Amino acid sequence: MVNINELTDICNKLGCRITAECSLSEYVTFRFGGVCRALISINSADSAVEILRYLRENDIKYFILGRGSNVIVSDEGFDGVVLLFGGDFAGIEVNGNTIKCDAGALLASACVHAQQSSLTGMENLFGIPGTVGGAVYMNAGAYNSEMADIVVSAEYIDENCEKRFVSRENMDFSYRHSVFSGTPLVITSVTMELSAGNSDSIKEAMNNCMSKRSSKQPLEYPSAGSTFKRPKDSYASLLIEQCGLKGLSCGGAEVSKKHSGFVINKGYATCADVFELCGIVQKTVKEKTGVLLELEPVILK
Length: 301
Description:
This protein has seven helices and 18 strands. The chain has helices at 4-14, 45-57, 107-116, 132-137, 199-216, 236-242, 271-289; strands at 17-23, 35-41, 62-65, 71-73, 78-84, 92-95, 98-102, 119-120, 141-142, 145-146, 151-157, 163-167, 186-193, 195-196, 249-250, 253-255, 263-265, 298-300. It has a five-stranded antiparallel β-sheet with strand order 6-7-13-11-12. The chain has a four-stranded mixed β-sheet with strand order 1-2-5-3, covered by helices on one side. The model has no long low-confidence stretch (mean pLDDT 97). The protein is an alpha+beta fold. Helix 1 packs antiparallel against helix 2. It folds into three domains: 4-84, 2-Layer Sandwich (Uridine Diphospho-n-acetylenolpyruvylglucosamine Reductase, domain 2); 92-216, Uridine Diphospho-n-acetylenolpyruvylglucosamine Reductase, domain 3; 236-300, UDP-N-acetylenolpyruvoylglucosamine reductase, C-terminal domain (Uridine Diphospho-n-acetylenolpyruvylglucosamine Reductase, domain 1).
């Protein structure tokens, strides 16, 4: 049971904003979902430690949320506390060829800082709509680049609410996976190492990357990005299209006509619509190709 009064007292002492019975639809890029018992805007690693300690000691469910760009929230909401890593916890510091970011910093903002500092290595990641912490958590990537290429270390909070440090060689990076994936470890900062480059050339590459995204992806609609993980030796979008599922819809959810790897919200989708549609896609692709597509977004319920 969430004691809102106790949580509010803790947040007030730490200077963190708290909203009780908060609708999550405006905090995720899919733009649907129910309410959580409370949403807390984290403002520092120290605040995160204190709040996590309270939640864990009182056996209260919690979820770490960044930009919400890879999350599907249940229509019934989340019977727990959401810790928002975002605007209040989004510092970016450039030092030579390294960039250190709070976990809540937007990946796009880190890319801009790199470009303005004439640092190359992040261009292909520009346009990924998540936070730096979320990008490391799932080893986000695009156009043959991924976070594992540039991350040198991270700071995190362990199971015992102690601050820890981990270097890249111990981060167990693989496709859409890191040592943090599916664990209670909470990333608080990330340090990336880039190379010296030309600011104008970097900006041009970033613009080209964004143009490519805009031309191929349905960015004009709410979604959670790529809906399915890339299967071995193929692409989810290719298999979905081959099975004649492009444009298929359930309620307000649709397999994008622009890019069949995206399930989009046409403006009135529910979580139930998305799950029904994804289920049909998975069943059909499995029957016709033998490949079982795996959902990429995290499910919050």
